[in-house]
Amino acid sequence: MNKQPFKSGFAVLIGRSNVGKSTLLNTLVGTKVAITTPKPQTTRFPIQGVVHDDRGQIVFVDTPGVMQKAKDELTKKLLDSVRQSLHDIDVLIYVVDPTRQIGNEEKQTLKMIEGVDKPKLLVINKVDERSAQRNIDFYRDLLEDHFDGAIELSALKGTNMDILKDWIFEHLPEGDAYYEKSQISNIGNKERIAELIREKLFLRLREEVPYSVHVDVHEIEERKNGIMYIRADVLTTEDRYKRMIIGKGARGIKEISQSTRNELENVTGKKIFLDMEVKVDSHWVNRFN
């Protein structure tokens, strides 16, 4: 019998903010590699999640959500990051959320992918929700003119994941693996912990604060007593945001630290000491890549 050829390639996930791209990535990989919150701009840089299969390897690339107007430096950089992610890919996965009203962001995203000469799949997410029926026909009508295929699914419930992977493998080229079988992501421990802290910040803080927040993890060390020591800085752009993050009586930062430690301890099985300091740095966006 002829051995099945090994296929590999990059499948980029693109769509406007909060359509469920990061949830879809985590479900496909089978574990949490990208943080998820209800707030826009949760994803700050393209995160790769790797699916290993007997047929080959899919490297999914989760991109920042497309927002309508690049009104600040961070949003401009995130949009540039999305555009860069459309180069050197093998499959484009356009994720949409039919529970939300169709707006200019959808048109902007469609315009961004027009010139991509690769197989394009339309993924209609959240189809299990009743409100999805209001706009689902609009997205179904996009198939004929814009896409090579369409799949309706629920990333949260994990429905139709095998159908999605089958479609991608059909359209991937033959090639060698990009990652070892033990690897499921392109981000290291420091980046992973920084993202987890930022997720807890997003979930805890008011609407306007997360856009001004960045996290740098400087040190991870397992000490003799078996405790994992982590030192991190939370950077924000103004003193008023720093006060919001810390909270009255340091309640806010304590809650953020506690929820981060709880998740890390559940994952690692180790005791965690999180040494976290909030600093004002109005120029961190300029250094952000």
Helices and strands, with pairings:
Layout lengths: L6 E8 L6 H9 L17 E7 L2 E7 L10 H13 L5 E6 L7 H10 L6 E5 L11 H11 L2 E4 L8 H11 L17 H16 L9 E9 L5 E9 L2 H8 L4 H18 L3 E9 L3 H4 L2
Give structural notes.
There is one protein chain. The chain has 289 residues and is of the alpha/beta class. It has two domains: 7-171, Rossmann fold (3-Layer(aba) Sandwich), CATH 3.40.50.300; 189-287, K homology (KH) domain (GMP Synthetase, Chain A, domain 3). It is 35% helix and 22% strand. A hairpin with a 2-residue loop joins strand 2 and strand 3. Helix 6 (189-204) crosses helix 8. The longest helix has 18 residues, at 251-268. It is globular.
Strand content: 15-25%
User: CATH H-level name of the largest domain... which superfamily?
Assistant: P-loop containing nucleotide triphosphate hydrolases
* Structural class estimated from helices and strands: alpha/beta
Let me know the average pLDDT: 86
Compute the separation of the termini in Å: 49 Å
In the predicted model, the low-confidence regions spanning at least 5 consecutive residues are none
Instruction: Report the principal-axis shape.
Output: globular
CATH level-two architecture of the largest domain: 3-Layer(aba) Sandwich
Largest sheet at a glance? Answer: 6 strands, mixed
Q: Could you please say which CATH topology of the largest domain applies here?
A: Rossmann fold
Please compute the radius of gyration using only Cα atoms: 20 Å
